[in-house]
Every structure is written in structure tokens, then in C-alpha cells.
Amino acid sequence: MRRNFIFISSMVAFGLLAGCSSKTSGGILDCDPGLDQCGETCVNLQTDENHCGACGYACGQGVDCVAGVCDNECPAGTEMCDGSCVDTVSDPENCGSCGTTCSGQAAYCFEGGCVDQCPQGYVDCDFACVDLSSDMLNCGQCGEACPTNGECVSGVCQCDPSLVNCGDVCADLSTDVDNCGDCGNECGGAGECVSGICQCPAGATECGGECVDLLSDNNNCGDCGVRCGPYGSCVSGVCECDVGADQCGNRCQDITSNPDFCGDCDTRCSNDQYCTDSACECRPGLLFCAAAGGCVDPLSDPANCGGCDLPCGGTMPVCNAGVCAHQCPGGLDECNNACVDTDTNPLHCGDCGNVCDNDEVCVQGGCEKYRAAPLCDQCPCDQCEGNDACCEFPGDPSMLICVGGGEGCPQ
Q: By the 8 A CB rule, do 255 and 278 touch?
């Protein structure tokens, strides 16, 4: 669906594409204002028939999603059965009444009763005996449904002369917010259609195809795209960040556990660190060694085996479990004399020397994006949406994170 807004005051026209212009990073999407992540895509929970009001909540066949609620209005001559609009006169799964199924020798449904075959003049549309000249769900051919407020005349879907056939509805293009000026042209949340032109009501501003209140909208606070949440709220057009958060760029960021904004907006943790209690520390299991210039793994680093500046060499060149050894045991990979599990080690993830970024963890040999979930105290966690997994940070059970990629939690 496309959304076009025209501000009457300036008479300047512009087009806006619906959907999302989001960047994917390990399964976690940065959705545009007004959209939410459901699985691997950004959707509008107010209008999406497969995610109506919440991810995965699908409206039935022939049912629209309006303002986040499935619209249960069915076309004339049909009724709602288990979430879908059906014709109980001919539906073999709901023949005569909801849930009455035709089967066996009487597998066809005709005039609300199960029969052994369709009578002459009626067409078999998947065991439904229908009159293609007048059937609202099979008009002219099987599966051709007419608009909810239309009718089937001589096998052709027709609308009132003042309305236009827009597929699922006969629409008044001058006032319909979902078909304003043209079929499929949505005015967006809170938008109005006036004489076929989308515009926002007084006190609202168009942002990304939605009419919003810049004084209170958490995703457009004071200006389009200024996001306060989930770590702040919009008050009189200004983001007021929660305790433990700070305004970094155009949004409130968690500075207690975000490796890109650790303690303040300008501190970024290195790849061998994580952010805990607003400070960059070595990832759990790693040790800071000044001579090495950073954090090392004392369990596998041959130059710091068991502790800083304890090198392996000679006939015992490799480091395994913090002890110098002749060779790495089975089940571990040797990476420059370091005995590591490349399925879990963030310094050798999937391959020797492949270091995960500061906002990634190693999951089954792949670096996957994560984000901290400081608002949650246990899993499952509402901050982790779609395919994100709620997990403990490796080695730190006190810190919960949302891990993208759909591969589960790091071990």
C-alpha cells in the first residue's frame, strides 16, 4: 500500500512509500516510525492482516485489519466462522452452519446440505456447489471474491455507481482513508481523506506516512524521527530520558549496558569488552593484560596461558584450559596455538581470528547481533520481539540480552 499526504496549507505534494526502510543487523531491525518488527520484516500492526494488533495475529480469509482490530464485517450472504467469512450455503467445511463438514459420499455442499454431487447449473469450486453468476465468494470464477459491500451480478463484481471497486471494498475515493483519491492510497494513522486528498488534522504532523502529535509521540518527539523510547518518554515535545539513559543523537539510549554508549554517549567498548554498570569491562572469561594491550583469554592464549605474560613454547606450544600442552585435545580447534571452540568463542567465532563486534555474541559459530534488555529481570522478556531470543550474556547471568539471527542463545 502507498501513502500520499498533501498539506493543504502549502499545497505541496509528496509521496511516501509504505512498508519500512529499515536496516537489518543480525535479525534485529530498525523499523521506521509507526512500524514494528515481526519476524524478519517491519509491519504496520494497525493494518497488516497477518499481524493485526500484534505479531502473528492473523485475520481470517476476507477479513480486514482496521486500527489493529480484525474487522468482522462479512460480505452480504456470508457469515463469520472461526475467523473467516464463509458462505454456509455452499462451504463444505461449514455446510448449513459453522463447523458442519461434508465428507465421504456426500462431500459436496449445496444450499446448506451435503450432497454427493453438484446439480446441473452449479459449479464445483473445491466441493462447494456455487452459482458463478451471483456467488459473492466465487463471482465469474472460483475464488473470485467481490468487495464486502459490493454484489455479484451476472458473474461480475459490481459496486454502487458512486463507489469504486478497490478489491476488498467498494470505496468512496473522496473520503476513504484507506483508498484516498486512488485505490490503496492510505492516509496513515489518524490521517483524514478530504476530497480525495490525505491530510493530517489540526495539531498533528505527518511523519513517515503517519499523523502524529510531536508533543507526545515517543517516536517523533518535537520533530519527525526523534525517538525517546524505550528508555524515555516524550513530554511537551522533549524527550525525558529514564534513569540509566541519556539523549544520544536523536533518541534516549541505555548507557548502563549498551557497548556503543557505555556510561555516556561518546564511549564505545572495544570488541573484547562488554558494557556493564556503565563501564567497559573485559568480556566474562577474558583478562586484561597491559603488555597485550587489551583483553586476552587466559584459557587459550599461548602468550598469556593461565595469566598475563605466561607464554607457552618448546615442546608445549599450545594453551589448553589455561595450561601449556603438546597439542589441542579432540573437540577443540587450534588457532595459532590457542585451543578454542569456534562454535562459542567470540575471539575465534566460526573460524580462527574471526572476532565478533562489540555488539555481537558467538552463537553456533556465527557472530549474531545482540542488544541489552535492562528493563527485564527474567526470560522470556517483552523487550525481545519477533525471532529475537532472550538470553543471559555469556558468563554473566545477571545481564539479559536479546539475540537476533534466530539461532538461539550463546553457550
A: yes
